[in-house]
C-alpha cells in the first residue's frame, strides 16, 4: 500500500476517494527513565526514552491507519498528517494521531 504526505501520487491517478481515516497510539513513558530525561533537558542532549516512545507510537498509528485503509477498500493513503501531543504535565504519555485520505488508484 502506498502512503504519502502529498495530496496525490506522481504518475498515478486517483480513481476513487474512500474517505478520511484516522488512527491514534498512546504510549506511556517510563517515569524513572523520564526523570533522567529531564536532566538532559537542562544540560542538553537527546532523550532516547521519549524518542523511542514517539517512534513506537508513530509506527502503531501508521499500522492502524493502514488497517483502516484496507477495511475501506483502498490501495493508497494520501495527505497523511501526524500530530503529536503530550497531554500529561509531567510528560508521562505521548499521543500520536495520524490522519489521511484512503483512495483507490487507477
Search tags:
4-stranded mixed beta sheet; Translation Initiation Factor IF3
Question: How are the elements arranged and paired?
Answer:
Blueprint: E1 2-3, E2 14-28, H1 31-43, H2 48-71, E3 76-85, E4 93-105
Which CATH-level-2 architecture?
2-Layer Sandwich
- SS class: alpha+beta
Enumerate the strands of the largest sheet in spatial order, edge to edge or round the barrel.
1-3-4-2
Supply the number of structural domains. 1
Count of DSSP-assigned helices: 2
Instruction: List low-pLDDT spans.
Output: none
Give an account of the 3D structure.
This protein is α+β, with helices and mostly antiparallel strands and 106 residues long. It has one domain (2-105): 2-Layer Sandwich (Translation Initiation Factor IF3). The chain is built from 2 helices and 4 strands. Strands 1-3-4-2 form a 4-stranded mixed sheet. A hairpin with a 7-residue loop joins strand 3 and strand 4. The chain is elongated, with a radius of gyration of 17 Å. The two termini are 13 Å apart. The mean pLDDT is 87.
